[in-house]
Design brief:
Elements (H helix, E strand, L loop, with lengths): L10 E2 L3 E6 L8 E8 L3 E6 L8 E6 L14 E11 L8 E7 L11
Antiparallel strand pairs: 1-3, 2-3, 2-5, 3-4, 4-7, 5-6, 6-7
Length: about 110
């Protein structure tokens, strides 16, 4: 039996994003790259750690900035469910799993 607790299938996605802890003011954004996403959440990789329970503001960047009329269309709010170190001690990196807040998921974060 698999230990996979996923409710929804995943869609592979490799896009640049930036994220910030909502408790930090003003927002201090960190860079990351998406790995996959689903109707319920997002997985990404970053050099910066996030802790389970953190609420993050996540924004698509790069080529998408000219495609949308508002930043809200590129932004979602999500809770960190897990964070695993995947890099070496010399060059730490983290794989981070998020769960979206609410039902207002921007188009770029929907499969």
């Amino acid at each position: 039996m698999s230990g996979d607790k996923r409710k929804d299938g995943r869609v592979r996605l490799a896009e640049d994003i930036m994220f910030a802890k909502r408790s930090d003011h003003p927002f201090c954004y960190y860079g990351a790259t998406t790995i996959n996403y689903s109707p319920g959440g997002l997985c990404f990789q970053s050099r910066y750690q996030a802790l389970p329970g953190d609420n993050l503001c996540v924004r698509m960047i790069g080529r998408h900035l000219q495609s949308f009329s508002s930043l809200e269309e590129l932004t979602c709010i999500a809770e960190v469910r897990w964070c695993s170190q995947i890099g070496s001690p010399d060059t730490p990196a983290y794989k981070i799993g998020l769960h979206y807040h609410g039902n207002l998921i921007p188009p770029l974060f929907r499969p």
